[in-house]
Amino acid sequence: xxKLTKLIVTGxxxxxxxxxxxxxxxxxxxxxxxxxxxxxKTITIKDEAGDKVAVPKNIKRIAVVxxxxxxxxxxxxxxxxxxxxxxxxxSMIAAKNGLLGELYPNIxxxxxxxxxxxxxxxxxxxxxxxxxxxYSAENKVEKKQLLNAGFTAVGISFTKYNYDTIxxxxxxxxxxxxxxxxxxxxxxxxxxxxxxxxxxxxxVKQIKPADRQNIFFLFQYDKSxxxxxxxxxFGQYWSDSIGAVNVAHKLKHNNTTNVTMEQVxxxxxxKILITNFTKAQPKDLYNNTIGNYDWSKVxxxxxxxxxxxxxxxxxxxTPGVDTPLTLLWMAKTVYPKQFKDININKETKNYYKKVxxxxxxxxxxxxxxxxxxxxxxx
Length: 378
Fold this sequence. Notes:
Elements: H1 3-11, E1 35-36, E2 42-46, E3 52-56, E4 62-65, H2 70-78, E5 84-86, H3 89-97, H4 100-103, H5 122-126, E6 132-136, H6 140-148, E7 153-156, H7 165-179, H8 186-204, E8 214-218, E9 220-222, E10 225-229, H9 234-241, E11 245-246, E12 256-258, H10 261-267, E13 271-274, H11 282-286, H12 299-302, E14 306-308, H13 323-334, H14 344-356, H15 362-368
Parallel strand pairs: 4-5, 4-6, 6-7, 8-11, 8-13, 13-14
Antiparallel strand pairs: 1-2, 2-3, 9-10, 10-12
Helix pairs in contact: 7-8, 8-13, 13-14
């Protein structure tokens, strides 16, 4: 397995999952009261690894290990990056090439030296003196390493909820709202997520089975590899949530699946969505500029129906701050007639303002929906 796939698997703690995907559930994820210790200096919460963790009541320094989308969630959650002192290298690359570094320049000061790819240098991490370290909840080796080194470790999961991106975001914001009650955004995020999800469902359920679009997620792509989303990865959830068909739904591998052009020819997708985990842009498929692949026979390429997924605060293929917007963008992209009245730029500005009190400029919104290839570099 190549370096990029290893990094994604490690960073998001992709684990073997045999439970079939389900629709959005648990939108109303209430923020349960956290337990305050007798010393009144800590709050006890239950993290997404299932552990009770006593975290400082006044957290000033945060480090994130492995959980790649989380630094962006934290920065937008606080509307500030001042607390973030450490983050994964892959998260930093996205911050530098997406909106995050522009919205919160201080996040670019966060250290990444502790990130050794599939391992953590705890000595480097100690130098940052974090009050709390967030890590990928399924990574038990990493958890043990952090605890043995004396860190207050809080598990965050990106795979616990069957790749349901909206439920994942809601649960994470709910957990952050327990730890940082003054910044509680659980209800407003859940409300916006539900509104967008219901809007999409009400429209796509009217699409006849024969008219449902077949989509292919180009997750990873270079001169030697072509990888897509199997039935057990985020691409399947996105397809289900917009009433489309993931052409690779019969592949039961976990997360990414390597495929051949011959398989793509057989699938002949109507639409191709390219993630920000690859440098590829639509023009690379239209012009066959990468490797020896010939995309000219594929329906989506013939009809110029290849799209690069947005890069807002983080890479939108995974759960994150932009998930409700990603759902709306994807529905409009795959079914433009059904969503012709949706102004995605206006929706994006409204979401950031109403939910996070962030004022995006027109230029920033344009940048979000026209991402640079540099965001995929490792």
